[in-house]
């Protein structure tokens, strides 16, 4: 049976050209994570389903890919009219694919706590899967690069992650990057001032969409939920607040150590003192971040040059490990959206000159016997770090040269009968077409 | 609700210590793949189910992890007494997790053929998933590193992959590695001589288990299937055949260009001429490899020092891309079992001195203000490639030093009030406990 080759919606094949670019990003990001003292970990693609459900809100739960149990999974299941897709799922699928790296990380920390040194600083670079509707910059399989520190509530960690974010985007040459910052405690104080405590989630969820739907629609949405017009007027004041100083005035009658203001002030003062390399840090009261688990500072990173949503985001969470049995660990993390960063770099033409290419040499194949003569020379080149290969078939030279051109070899070497006799090899420089006869050792010396 | 943290059977968390060792293997393997002119590709974790089923035999099909469709997947399905786990699976799960890298690769090659240069040489390093019973060296999520070349049937490719395999195990310092080689065409010729053509699959499947069950049981198994005792006597001669020369005598009355003998002779002659670095290449008539798709030379790699099964294996397949619509591509590949290679290296103590560690420095935290003073110095160190961090909390020095010890920092730096005044920093060398006051620039110079 012939099958038309295809892959699932929202997933991608990566050709070598794309892989080289992705690896360029990974390499940069990784070396920065490392220099800040973060160490790598990995968790399985599949988690037990109860590890994941209930952590991402109802919408999130629906988007989790579930893995069907093996064997006769229907054996002990009564199939009657009461069976629905929803109530049978957990019985026939006890595993699911990772939805993000944060929840598996919290599970990892509690499960492996005896082996870890706290505060524990880790980075994790793995795929996650979401059954979301695919669109530009949104895939069903995508790559996340997360750094987290758990076991400390020091604000130095916030400063460290801001510096690290600045280093990442500076190293990738992405211009006009803004790091938006807010604090969930500020949002709590704001909603309290609005006398709308019971609508906290509604207000925060609406506010998070302000860029997409505009402030008027945010207000309409929360008024529909029951928030009063007077409360909305107070919200006006907050949304117009453009700096920490503005915020200080609005929150002057509440306790600054509890409302997040002291935290933000310390962070801004410190960052101003030490400076950032290329990013700009901006206070943004409308930044809320949907996920339930954030409790302190929250971040979101965008580049002004491309409307593609956030390219990184994160925040402080105080209670995430508690669901797995450990209450004492405050954590802070940021996640870099590598697939979007890739799109930004591609659209801005930032890959062009950045990717190092190793020197590469192709040997023309003049026949089995001659080819075997080439192999020891090829091994010599590989040993000094030069990519080298012989064309596998002794086909027409023109075809072999086309291959060399397509794969952008730097040099093509010809060792035929004559060359074997004289001990000289014939080398063609593909950048200029220049051809010369040299000894093998001189050729290696030249390449080094 | 509290959840006891756990992960699915047969899967693993990787701590940083394990990750550093795995990355050491990946880095070595990758640089060798590259030096031979292979380029990276990646395919999605999920494939459409029809891409995978029917490629790995019945047993393989049962071990494929299937992914439940999203949304109301039971909507159009009649749930009656005819429903079984087996006949409903493909209706409720149209995607599945990658079972190996070869079939997705064949699908990739046909789907992306316009973008590729042939012969196409790729490497692929990704996880695969199998619902197999877990045991030592066998996991449900494990990592494969594959190299394949498609679009050529030249025997130079076989030689290239033998050299590459030799380079991989030499670079990892794994001793006593044997590369077993056989040819499916030899097996065909053998079965023809046995006059047992119709039992080819039975004979090959039984022979593949000779190490586990012994030759007597192999014979019992095939006799039970219907192979005659006379045929088994001929099999005796073949199994006793220890070299290509022995084989040549046994197959002298058949066409050596068709029975695989010429292929093996050319490969052995060439390898003998150019030599291997540390591996030994051994002809093994009992090597059959279960997978249906091999048609020519087959390989399996073991280390004599550890009974753990094969650590690499592969072969030539002539028809794998045809199922996806392209008949013309002969391919050859080898897959390295990274998880088993890891176990071998661990048991033989091969990681100990091989893993480079970057220099690392921890700064003691004497309080918020002092800490912020340290940050620019820390950035200077990171810039020159030194891992550096400040302990996030200004807690007891003893606790901070324990952290520094546990994370094996090379130096601990103290910058308190005095140090800020004098401009000298206090540095403790953790390897010998020696402590001195130096300028920042002298410290950086020393580390470089």
Distance between the termini of chain A: 52 Å
Helical fraction of chain A equals: 25-40%
Q: Label the structural class of chain A.
A: alpha+beta
Approximate shape of chain A: elongated
**How can the largest sheet of chain A be summarized?**
8 strands, mixed
Oligomerization state of this entry?
A: homodimer
Low-confidence stretches of chain A at least 5 residues in length (pLDDT < 50)?
none
pLDDT averaged residue by residue of chain A: 92
Number of strands of chain A: 16
How big a fraction of the residues of chain A is strand? 15-25%
Q: Order the strands across the largest sheet of chain A as they lie in space.
A: 1-5-6-11-10-9-7-8
Biggest chain pair contact, residues each? A-B, 119 and 117 residues
Please compute the radius of gyration of chain A using only Cα atoms.
Answer: 29 Å
Count helical runs of chain A.
18
């Amino acid at each position: 049976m012939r099958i038309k080759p295809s892959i699932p919606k929202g997933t991608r094949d990566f050709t070598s050209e794309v892989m080289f670019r992705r690896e360029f990003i990974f390499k940069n990001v990784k070396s920065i994570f490392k220099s800040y003292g973060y160490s790598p970990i990995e968790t399985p693609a599949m988690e037990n389903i109860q590890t994941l459900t209930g952590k991402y809100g109802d919408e999130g739960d629906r988007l989790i890919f579930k893995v069907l149990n093996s064997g006769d999974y229907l054996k002990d299941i009564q199939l009657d009219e009461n069976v629905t897709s929803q109530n049978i799922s957990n019985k026939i699928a006890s595993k699911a694919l990772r939805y993000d790296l944060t929840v598996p990380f919290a599970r990892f920390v509690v499960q492996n706590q005896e082996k870890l040194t706290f505060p524990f600083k880790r980075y994790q670079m793995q795929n996650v899967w979401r059954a979301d509707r695919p669109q530009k910059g949104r895939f069903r399989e995508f790559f996340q690069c997360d750094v987290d520190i758990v076991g400390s509530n020091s604000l130095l960690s916030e400063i460290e992650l801001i510096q690290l974010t600045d280093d990442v985007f500076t190293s990738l040459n992405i211009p006009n990057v803004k790091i938006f910052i807010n604090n969930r405690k500020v949002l709590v104080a704001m909603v309290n001032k609005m006398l709308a405590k019971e609508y906290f989630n509604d207000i925060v969820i609406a506010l998070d969409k302000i860029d997409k739907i505009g402030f008027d629609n945010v207000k309409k949405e929360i008024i529909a939920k029951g928030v009063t017009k007077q409360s909305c007027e107070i919200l006006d004041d907050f949304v117009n607040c453009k700096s920490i100083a503005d915020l200080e005035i609005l929150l002057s009658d509440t306790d600054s150590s509890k409302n997040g203001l002291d935290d933000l002030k310390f962070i801004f003062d410190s960052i101003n003192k030490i400076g950032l390399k290329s990013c700009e840090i901006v206070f943004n009261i409308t930044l809320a971040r949907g996920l339930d688990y954030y409790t302190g500072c929250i971040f979101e990173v965008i580049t002004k040059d491309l409307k593609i949503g956030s390219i990184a985001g994160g925040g402080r969470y105080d209670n995430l490990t508690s669901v797995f049995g450990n209450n004492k660990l405050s954590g802070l993390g940021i996640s870099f959206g590598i697939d979007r960063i890739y799109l930004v770099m591609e659209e801005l033409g930032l890959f062009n000159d950045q990717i190092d290419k190793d020197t590469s040499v192709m040997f023309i194949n003049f026949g089995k016997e001659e080819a075997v003569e080439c192999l020891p020379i090829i091994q010599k080149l590989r040993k000094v770090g030069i990519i080298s290969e012989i064309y596998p078939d002794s086909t027409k030279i023109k075809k072999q040269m086309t291959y060399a051109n397509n794969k952008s070899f730097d040099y093509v070497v010809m060792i035929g009968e004559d060359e074997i006799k004289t001990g000289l090899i014939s080398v063609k420089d593909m950048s200029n077409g220049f051809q010369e006869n040299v000894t093998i050792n001189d050729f290696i010396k030249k390449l080094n």
